TrEMBL record:
The keyword Oxidoreductase applies. Gene3D superfamilies: NAD(P)-binding Rossmann-like Domain. PANTHER family: NADH DEHYDROGENASE [UBIQUINONE] 1 ALPHA SUBCOMPLEX SUBUNIT 9, MITOCHONDRIAL (PTHR12126:SF11), NADH-UBIQUINONE OXIDOREDUCTASE 39 KDA SUBUNIT-RELATED (PTHR12126). Keywords: Oxidoreductase. Residues 6-150 form the NAD(P)-binding domain. InterPro entries: ComplexI_NDUFA9_subunit (IPR051207), NAD(P)-bd_dom (IPR016040), NAD(P)-bd_dom_sf (IPR036291). Its EC number is 1.6.99.3. This is Putative nucleoside-diphosphate sugar epimerase.
Length: 298
């Protein structure tokens, strides 16, 4: 039995579909407020939360491996990076260890480190430490930005491109290395059984390192949108972002995101390819083959 947390989310919905296809017995921990539309038939559902320890006891019963996907990019009351990433992972690690789980696979984020500038990356790193010290076999994946069907990142950028009379590009010179969500799923599936992955951390990313400006232009081309663009310096966004995150539940930009935009989100994929041997899908091909923000249905 495999336990997946975050199974109704972007990565999780792709993962559980593949697990069912592979005929791997799977259980999903979901909140009562979550929609189950993305879960295929054959998935066992347990209601709970990573910060509800009693529900974690039930969720981890008779489980051999855990794939932990739960994470947030926007904070709100009762759901900070510290509560979800650090404490939530700590709770799940403890429950898994007590239940006799043998293998724990955690999806962290590229850029996670002890001395990171953003709290997002620091809390992801803290979660990694609990996984590493758990005594269970572990695999930690640190993906760059993930793209694909139902991906919130590309959908958000697409909405900006479609609605704005002039397309604003913030932090345009920073580099990113988008990875197709199904390639991330490839890594997760292989991590369940491939011994070469045991007790290792892998930085995973796509085949292309591009700037955010290039990403916007590629997406505009895929959408068939021809508009002027304007580069906006990050420093000019600090005050608006601070105001927006203090008055809106879901601000379009936050100060934590601006901090992350100041650094490249790229890595060397040699080690990833040596172990996982992926057929990586380039950005343009992802935009052609998946209905990202309506692109493929044009």
């Amino acid at each position: 039995m495999i336990l997946v947390t975050g199974g109704t989310g972007f990565v999780g919905s792709h993962l559980v579909r593949r697990l069912v296809q592979e005929k791997i017995q799977t259980r999903c921990l979901v909140r009562k407020t979550s929609s189950l539309e993305r879960l295929p038939r054959g998935i066992e559902v347990v209601y709970g939360d990573v910060n509800d320890k009693e529900s974690l006891k039930k969720a981890t019963e008779d489980v051999e491996a855990v794939i932990h996907l739960v994470g947030i990019i926007l904070e709100h009351k009762g759901a900070t990076f510290e509560i979800i990433h650090t404490q939530g992972t700590k709770n799940l690690v403890e429950a898994s260890r007590e239940a006799g789980v043998k293998r724990f696979i955690y999806v962290s984020a590229l850029g996670s480190r002890e001395n990171a500038q953003s709290r997002y990356h620091i809390t992801k790193w803290q979660a990694e430490q609990d996984v590493i010290k758990s005594g269970m076999e572990y695999v930690i994946l640190r993906p760059s930005i993930m793209i694909g069907e139902r991906g919130t990142f590309i959908t958000m950028l697409s909405n900006v491109i479609k609605k704005a009379p002039v397309v604003p590009i913030i932090g345009g010179d920073s580099k990113v290395q988008p990875i197709y969500v199904e390639n991330t799923v490839d890594c997760l599936i292989k991590s369940l059984t491939e011994r070469k992955t045991t007790n290792r951390i892998f930085e995973i990313a796509g085949p292309e390192q591009i700037t955010y400006r290039q990403l916007f232009l590629t997406l505009m081309e895929a959408l068939g949108v021809k508009k002027p663009t304007i580069d906006i310096p990050i420093w000019l966004m600090w005050l608006p972002a601070y105001i927006l995150e203090n008055v809106l539940d879901k601000p379009p930009i936050t100060t934590q995101q601006l901090i992350m935009l100041q650094e490249d989100n790229i890595c060397d994929i040699k080690e990833m390819q040596e172990v996982f041997n992926l057929k990586l899908v380039p950005l343009r091909d992802v935009l052609k083959k998946t209905p990202v923000a309506g692109i493929a249905e044009k």
